[in-house]
Protein: CO or xanthine dehydrogenase, Mo-binding subunit
Amino acid sequence: MSLDPKTSAEPGVESSEHPAAASRPRPPPEPVGDVVGRSAVRPDAREKVTGRAIYTDDLQLPGMLQGALLGSPHAHARILSYDASRARALPGVRAVLTAEDLPPIDIGPVVKDQPLLARGKVRYAGEPVAAVAAVDLATARRALELIDIRYEVLPDVLDVEAALRPDAPPIHAPRDGRPPNAAAHIRLVEGDPDRMWSRCDVVIEDIYETPAQQHIYLEPCSTVADVDLDSGRLTLHTSTQSVFRVQAITAEALALPMTKVRVLAPRVGGAFGGKTESTNQPITAALARAARAPVKLTFSRTDDMTMMRSRHGARIHLRTGASKDGRILVRQARIYLDTGAYADDGPFVAAVASYFARGPYRIPHVDIECWCVYTNKLRGSAFRGFGNPQIHFASETQVDRIADALKVDPIELRISNALETGERWLGGAPVESGTLRACLERARDVAQWARRRQATEPCAPGKRRGIGVSAVAHVSGLLGSSATVRLNEDGTVGVNTGAVDIGQGSDIALAQCAAGALGLPLEHIQFSRPDTDTSPYDWATGGTRTTFTVGRAITQACEQLREQLFEQAAEVLQRPARSLELRPGGLVGVRGEPELTVSFAALAGRALYVEGGPPIASARWMFPPFQLDTRRTQVEGLPTMANGFFVFAAQVAEVEVDEVTGHVRLLEAWSVHDVGRALNPAAAEGQVIGGFVQGLGFALTEELLWKDGQLLNPSMSGYKVPGVLDVPLAIHPILLEHPAGPGPFGAKGVAEVSLVGVAPAVCNAIRHATGALVTRIPATGERVLRALLATPDTD
Structure:
């Protein structure tokens, strides 16, 4: 069978758009010296492995109080009354707050629907309803037990499709004429999908479900808030992904000018999206103001899991059709995302899920509809991949089923339909570096796909072995960043951004960007810590954007600093600036005259004390949002996308399945990523391995479970994260380098995409091994056994 996408269409079937790849971007600039591309040691490595790193909970201020929160016992209830008198009278208690003590302001990144403490009614079990500050944590927790709140229990709704029915209990007041519990609705249609189904030779239709996954960062949410009693100004030290988002949210929630809120980030013990739009900080700030003293609020693991956020659970109705020559022609998706009690980042997550529902393929006819739905559960939020792991699980599982129906190799089917450079994404955005084919071909080779796919060697009795693949696409870069670089008198450079290193190693990568742009050794770069008083603005560490976007701002600022250096050097060397070049080691030289050089230190001294002024430069950059092309795409609810630069990967997993217990064990994995340019190869490989392991939890073990509105497993004993015995040593990160795009030196993002395709690769391997179709993850032993027996999943 021919799988050439450029073969002529069958009669009556429209040809897929396949424009010439004529818009290849210009090569990015080359770094100076050898710092970029070297596996440099992270500056925080020693302090972390020796235990000297200072996290928020390590901070102690004179007179500091301890905070604690009281969570709702009900999933949905009206608050009838509060009585905090006994708690306030308890010795050692300095402040007790309920919604009655706070400004009547709701917050949220998209929909302003969430109070700091429940006001009027509670919408999920665990929702904070009261806060206490006391001299120690035991007293604070004792005070919580003394707060009397009377409730009227209301009917709850826990299923996403049931929540959209006209008779469903309303969680929020209806708006915009939508169903009562719709937080957002998106529809994208291209081509003529209704007409195409009858022209397909193969049509596959399934319902897929993915779980609410908890971020399980090592460090629970923690904030220390101090208040200046003279000015009323708040200073917050907090575990966060963005000091600027915390500043804005805290000021908004407490009705303060942003100038009255300063935020600093100590070391952060992981986040994965769970610490962008937290409410931990403004509650702590409110307690500090009420108590007129510093307050620390550090969540226990259970409080963090019941009060904070999770990945959106999803139910996806997916239908895909293909022709017998291997072209995927049409797709319909109905996506239901469980955003929990509050919208939070849900509308953004819905946008990403919709945008990637076509997959990285040239499918000319699509009908995508996505509902972001309120339920009486924990808030759904940003989580590594941001809606893309959910839709990729459904899409890539279904592509494998099409390959089986057509009797073609799954990798070859993906290669033949893969978008390439110069083609258009759903909505019309250009694919500027379409390297999915290269990723798939490399994965096929390094995994010895053909041999393993056809292998017949015996396994242990009662066990079967299989191998599966997924093709992956994501974006890197969104929203705005800025940076300042300053040349010191000795020729070293200070770099200042607002970017928070949350443990992924962005500080070293960004320092390498500055060093590479200026030709300096790494030890001559000093990187400042995030502080809203002194740092240039950065939106947040998330969305595969920090190295890409902040790195771009840094290199732009370095280019400006270089021009200042050239102006000075032109006078010193008596040569025109256009003839000058940077040389490794902090030197400016003349092209073609190797003996003519001047040091950065000499140029800094001249600028500071003779002419020109302090050598300093700032730059800002924002990845431009993309206006969806309404001439090709019918659009509802999503006029623009905070688009990024498309990045591609391929992931292969080999598993062993126990036919008696259904237990699945990952044997080996290959994760191939086009990283553009590997600024720090060891760090990039670490991201790939870490993302794969987190994706393995999504695929096999991790799931938040509710019964009657109560979260059943809010602890590390009940919530199963992959442990060391679940993760093989043989996870192979393979970095391809195709420099392109606006990232520093052609670098592309890798942080999120490393997780996105793991679940379908694993489940496709399960199906190859056993024939069992897993449509609901995690693929626990019970679910795999049900799939083997083809019995309904009734969990």
Summary: Residues 310-477+628-789 form a domain with the Aldehyde Oxidoreductase; domain 4 fold (CATH 3.30.365.10).
